[in-house]
């Protein structure tokens, strides 16, 4: 029975974001931890000042290219990383953003009906305003990952 080893690594924000978005699929590092296929990296994001941001994610090691035999200096390795879960989350955020935008559009279209029924549209407008703020937040988030809007 094989066991999974977890390795905690602190990485700069730019690398963290690229791995999270699926743009960076490898990591060059010292092989002082004896990395193996199937191990999991617990990646912790560091800001520009080297402080932890409290953001973390897991990434599976799918391949290890060890130094010496491949042209890498002995003691170094290149880790191939698989990180598909965040991509599903990113797609979900895009989907939910689109549904929220549709809901806001439908609610705005109903303002006249609400007024004709003798009610005020104040609450509906407040709901739409809050919904549009969340749509903007989702757009801002998705821009970081080059996801279409």
TrEMBL record:
Alphabetical list of InterPro entries matching this protein: DUF3850, PUA-like_sf
Membrane-spanning segments: none
Classification via Gene3D superfamilies: Hypothetical protein
All copies of domain DUF3850, residue ranges: 7-80
Superkingdom of this protein's organism: Bacteria
Protein name per its UniProtKB record: DUF3850 domain-containing protein
Organism, scientific name: Photobacterium halotolerans
